[in-house]
Amino acid sequence: KVADLKGLKQGQLRLAVITTAKYIIPRLLGPFCQLYPGIDISLQVTNHERILERMVNNMDDLYIMSQVPDHLDVNFEAFLENPLVVFAPLNHPLSHEKNIPIERLGEEPFIMREPGSGTRRAVQTLLDEHGVKVNVKLELGSNEAIKQAIAGGLGISVLSRHTLLTDAAEFSILDVQHFPIKRTWYMVYPAGKQLSIVARTYYEYLLNAAKEIVEQGNLLSIPSAETISR
Ligand code: PGA
Q: How close is the Cα of 48 to the center of ligand 1, in Å?
């Protein structure tokens, strides 16, 4: 049983995760560190392209991303959904409309993530598929900055639903056709790499924690160390 091995697991865990995962992964490190007080952790939070660079340079033990690279030989496993939704300010005129045609997005000032962002790529792919051109008023390299810009009335954007974790009351999610964009978070590591015991322990921990979260249906209810290690 995992819990019995507690104090025996020691060492460093190096994680690198895409920006949307920062809303969940640090919270889940709490119970993990309780279970394994001997493990020290470094967590890098960055965009899809930077994660790929880190992976190519073998800088971390495990990576979390929502698009598995197809040009690299990697092992991967899905663990939680990461839907992308259309965010608008609370009192936006479209907030009570149903089934808004995707073309309508072209008429709103739009806030876009930076080049290199996986979110941006997914949004652009969907817009291109439907021949929709958005009017990008502002480009920002941070989900949090985009949320503040939306709240400030600068425009609308498409972000991971996870970025709303604690402040859902400040935004509306628009009911636009073809949304949410379905994505998934994966744990990824290079195929040739032998995971350390510490990394393997975290890998299994995260799968269990994600299962608990899905069962409880609430991303904010972080399972206790005891539940996860059962
Ligand atoms: P991003 O990552 O920070 O690169 O947009 C999110 C994702 O790829 O889902």
A: 5
| Residue to probe by mutation, ligand 1, list 17, 47, 161, most atoms within 8 Å of CB | 47
What pLDDT was estimated at residue 8?
Answer: 67
Give the pTM.
Answer: 0.90
Ligand 1 geometric centre to CA of 135 (Å):
21
Q: Which helix (H) or strand (E) holds 110?
A: strand 109-113
Q: For the chain, which ranges sit under pLDDT 50? A: 3
- Per-residue pLDDT tens over the stretch 32-67: 999 999 999 999 999 999 999 999 999 999 999 999
Coil vs helix vs strand at 87:
strand
Q: What are the angstrom distances between the C-alpha of 96 and each of 47, 147, 172, 177?
A: 32, 20, 9, 14
- Tell me which long-range contacts 67-76 makes (C-beta under 8 A, separation of at least 24): 67/118, 67/121, 67/122, 67/183, 68/186, 68/188, 69/188, 72/190, 73/190, 73/191, 73/192, 74/188, 74/189, 74/190, 74/191, 75/188, 75/189, 75/190, 75/191, 76/186, 76/187, 76/188, 76/189
> What tokens does 145 get?
């900055």
Our mutation pick for probing the ligand 1 site, out of 22, 44, 48, counting the most ligand atoms within 8 A of Cβ, is 48
Q: Give CA 104 to chain center in angstroms.
A: 26
